[in-house]
Amino acid sequence: MKRSTYFFLILILGSLTALGPFTIDMYLPGFGAIAQDLHTDVSSVGLTLSSYFFGIFAGQLLFGPLLDKFGRKRPLYIGLLVYILTSAGCVITQNIDHFIALRFFQAIGSCAATVTAMAMVRDLFPVSENAKVFALLMLVVGASPMIAPTVGGYVTSSIGWHAIFIILTIMGILMLLASIFWLPGSFKPDRALSLAPGPIIRGFWQVAKEARFYTYAITGAIAFSALFAYVSASPKVFMDVYHVDEKVYGWIFAALSVGFIGSSQVNTLLLRRFSSVQILPVALGVQSSVGLLFAVAAAGGWLSLWSTLALLFILLCSLGFVNPNTAALSLAPFERNAGTASSLLGALQMGAGGLASVFVSLDKTNSALPLALVMAVTGSVALAVLLICRRNIRPEAPLGTA
């Protein structure tokens, strides 16, 4: 493959992968303005984020089988069309309930882009190149939380929150055109593959009953739901509780994202000396202890903006260690059905994250306590699940080092 072609494909696949994170993060600074225009409160606007997470949950389970049966491009086109139409619908909506529903289907459309991009890496590049390509895509995803809310803050303060969804609609159109004209066909559809519920459910059950999968997948899903709670609650905590404006909020969100992204890169270095099995309980110990400290401080009314930033930074750093290691350990036992395992892993993460985000979004108090409680509970429960369930893992089974 020519070098220019290689980087052009990376650019398209990276853009598809980043569509979801941009759609999540870019409108966060506009929560207050959206609430005012739709005659509701910020907590209700937070439910649009919860519905988005549940949409990704559904999309993870939907598009895996579709991509195998019909090839990569047709499901991608349909997903992007759904994304474009729902993004345009968000521009003109005047009702919070309609907005919540539109975000659900917008998430399903964006999920098509993400799942297709991941599948096409295996199709288009040699196996020896896959890890390198995935690393490049993850850099794009990692940059999204730093860029999107900052841009969203300036767009919201300058020309209004509707412009954010106009931008997302244009992004969807550009990605659809790029996929049609420049993304190569890469996979021969398996027309014999059944889309009946029975075989699909049996495939998921075969994965779910593996001790290493359910131990690390459930641990990771519970721990990682703290990130979804943080994303959902952060506009209210920073803009309502601490009274920062949209631009400052964007910069705060970007700065805290450095902790999550940076720790995931440090994790790669630590794996040269330690295994994922060794790193994971330490990271969960930090998450649970700092989460408990956060909850106690919030309940006592001892938090300031700076102490909240410091505690959240440490918590996000711990998640940067937890997520890659639980993902690697969850998928380690699988070869032939790695796609099913990956899909189920993503669905578990999104389902748990959606529930956590609903909890913090439904709270009407003007406080950081609901977020702090979720941070404390998720870390502690995840650590307990790990310590209890890992007893079921056969000692002779190789656990991998990611």
TrEMBL record:
The keyword Transport applies. SUPFAM superfamilies: MFS general substrate transporter. The keyword Transmembrane helix applies. Keywords: Cell membrane, Membrane, Transmembrane, Transmembrane helix, Transport. PROSITE patterns: MFS. Its main location: membrane. InterPro entries: Efflux_drug-R_Bcr/CmlA, MFS, MFS_dom, MFS_trans_sf. Residues 6-394 form the Major facilitator superfamily (MFS) profile domain. Pfam families: MFS_1. It is a multi-pass membrane protein. It is found in: Cell membrane. The chain crosses the membrane at residues 45-64, 76-94, 100-121, 133-155, 161-183, 213-233, 248-270, 282-303, 309-332, 344-362, 368-389. Belongs to the major facilitator superfamily. Bcr/CmlA family. PANTHER family: MAJOR FACILITATOR SUPERFAMILY (PTHR23502), POLYAMINE TRANSPORTER 2-RELATED (PTHR23502:SF132). This is Multidrug effflux MFS transporter.
